[in-house]
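>> received
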Amino acid sequence: MTPSHSLLLFLSCTLFVHQCQGACAEVDSDTEAVAGRGFKLGCISCKRRSEVKAAATVEWYFQADGEVDFVQIYTYEDGAPTESEHFKGRLDWNGTKRSRDIQDASIYLLNVTFNDSGTYHCFFNRILSFDNYEYTTTISKLVRLTVVAKATRGTASIASEVMMYVSIIGLQVWLLIEMIYCYRKISAAGEEALREAANAEYLAIASESKDNCAGVQVGE
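>> returned
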């Protein structure tokens, strides 16, 4: 097996394994919002065993900068959301839909203000259903939100963009190498076929000449 084919096999296997792991990935929420715009408060908790049936309810709490206590601002249960008066009409469910097995509990905050800066606490109250019993567990996530007047690009954003361009360039280089390899292989196969055809033609002519010579000698 050539190095090129080994690389193709590796990439295919990697893609297959990635797909088999499921669609859920626990990505951290962004932490910087721009005043006057919308912002997604991310909160994801993936089940470790996808085959286990589960149902979950979600609670969101908020601690404003300078405050000591958390106040409940949002609940989501059986597809029915409930908002607090402080965020009334400004919170929208952005998580798992049409399923009680909630793994994404993200919410969307509309028309962000500077007063929205603070710490947001997300709770999953999850019931796992096994054959003979149920198990209740609580998972929590924290999001420390800062509200700014103008968007800024963080180091992580810049690094992600650089890695994206590096990946694109690397893929193009790999495709170019693969094309050159395939072209050389096809060209070599074509030259070999031409040589074999030429040898076959030469042998046929030589055999015909030998037969003609033998016929002349017999006639004499």
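>> The domain at 3-148 is CATH 2.60.40.10 (Immunoglobulin-like).
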